[in-house]
UniProtKB/TrEMBL annotation:
Residues 4-41, 131-201 form a coiled coil. The lineage of its organism: Eukaryota, Sar, Stramenopiles, Oomycota, Peronosporomycetes. This is Uncharacterized protein. Keywords: Coiled coil.
Length: 227
């Protein structure tokens, strides 16, 4: 009865650990999916905003260049034309020079901002690429975890079968009372040692897949040496 109760406790602990692992896995999967979706939406909105801002700067720069071309053409017109003389008379040289300097400064500022926007856009694209790589790695780790989980379930099944085979050892009927008592004590010692080994070798399902695989190899080696 003591051995049966001990086996039941081990089975209950395994069931509880499996349930805890499944609940943790579901929660982590749900949280990771939500985080990935939120990050993708954030980066998409940011990339769209930066692209629109870069397009606006390009349009402003194009308008400034057109204005500079028209202004240069206006300054290069011959003095003999009456319409040009009338326009130049209404503009003082100092004011015209200040206007040109101001427009050149604006163009330089827009060019600098456009370069900064290009750098930010490149950084955003690189971050999106790294995010996709991280998602692929998470998928790979999840597959490895499933394989390790399946291996642990198979190991638990083998342990249960081993326990059943040990408890069903044939009893020698034609023996004296002292021999029967000695055989019974030997069987009880074997069963207790087997339960202690199984309980000591019970794998914590909260470990990582790689650690679970290493523990599995140690378990197989100990079985081989015990034989």
């Amino acid at each position: 009865e003591e051995l049966i109760q001990k086996q039941k406790r081990i089975e209950e602990e395994l069931v509880k650990k499996k349930q805890a692992v499944e609940e943790t896995e579901q929660r982590l999967t749900k949280e990771s999916q939500g985080m990935l979706q939120a990050q993708e939406e954030t980066w998409s909105c940011r990339e769209k905003f930066l692209q629109e801002e870069a397009d606006n700067y390009k349009q402003k720069l194009a308008r400034m260049q057109t204005f500079h071309v028209e202004l240069a053409q206006l300054l290069q017109i011959k003095d003999g034309e009456d319409t040009v003389d009338e326009q130049l008379e209404s503009v003082e040289p100092a004011m015209l020079k200040a206007l040109i300097v101001q427009e050149i400064d604006k163009r330089d500022v827009l060019t600098t901002k456009l370069g900064q926007m290009k750098l930010k856009l490149g950084a955003t694209k690189r971050q999106l690429t790294s995010q996709k790589q991280l998602e692929a790695e998470n998928t790979k780790l999840r597959a490895e975890y499933e394989k390790a989980k399946l291996a642990m379930e198979r190991m638990a099944t083998r342990k249960a079968k081993s326990f059943a085979s040990v408890t069903s050892l044939p009893v020698q009927q034609r023996s004296c009372p002292s021999e029967r008592n000695a055989g019974k004590e030997n069987r009880l010692a074997i069963i207790k040692r087997q339960l202690d080994e199984d309980e000591a070798e019970t794998i914590d399902l909260r470990t990582t897949p790689r650690k679970a695989q290493r523990t599995k190899h140690v378990y197989v080696a100990s079985r081989y040496l015990s034989k």
